[in-house]
Design goal:
Helices cover 19% and strands 39% of the residues. The protein has 4 helices and 9 strands. Strands 2-1-5-8-9-4-3 form a 7-stranded antiparallel sheet. Strands 6-7 form a two-stranded antiparallel sheet. The two termini are 27 Å apart.
Length: 159
């Protein structure tokens, strides 16, 4: 065991890691998907997820004004779209349209449910906490969607 800088230690244990997409909406109704690696389940009853979003991100602004998000577990077939949604800014483009993904309106807040995904979870934002240069948003799952047989995407598939 060798003592190293934090960045080196994280890089050494990173894979395999899961990635998700959070689908959010701004105050004008524009939808924005953001690719995230920092997320987790936080409760079984009721079911909840937490996502961590940087303060400088357009999606952070969206979550401040529209208190819902859909958490999408992408399938391996979605690798190109996930990479695009993690590198482009929704301030400057329509990432959902540009991704070529198909979708339908969810039941909770009308946010897109991605058809190509392994699973989608519609969440109502219930709390948030500042964590350094990010905010951790916690959402309660209200509706869940599953496409059986779709293999979830791992971060290593994006490289």
């Amino acid at each position: 065991m060798e003592r190293v800088e934090f960045a080196s230690a994280i890089k050494g244990i990173k894979n395999p890691a899961r990635v998700v997409m959070a689908i959010v909406q701004d105050e004008t109704g524009k939808v924005n998907p953001i690719t995230l690696e920092w997320f987790m389940r936080t409760s079984i009853a009721p079911p909840m997820f937490a996502i961590s979003v940087g303060h400088s991100r357009y999606s952070h602004d969206c979550l401040q004004s529209f208190r819902y998000f859909n958490l999408c577990y992408p399938s391996r077939e979605m690798a190109a779209a996930v990479l695009h949604c993690g590198t482009a800014s929704g301030r400057d483009s329509d990432k959902l349209k540009d991704s070529g993904l198909s979708w339908f309106k969810g039941r909770l807040a009308g946010l897109p449910i991605i058809r190509e995904a392994a699973a989608n979870f519609e969440c109502k934002l219930i709390s948030q906490i500042r964590s350094g240069d990010h905010t951790i948003f916690t959402g309660e799952v209200k509706y869940s969607w599953l496409e059986a047989g779709r293999e979830p995407l791992l971060a290593e598939h994006l490289q």
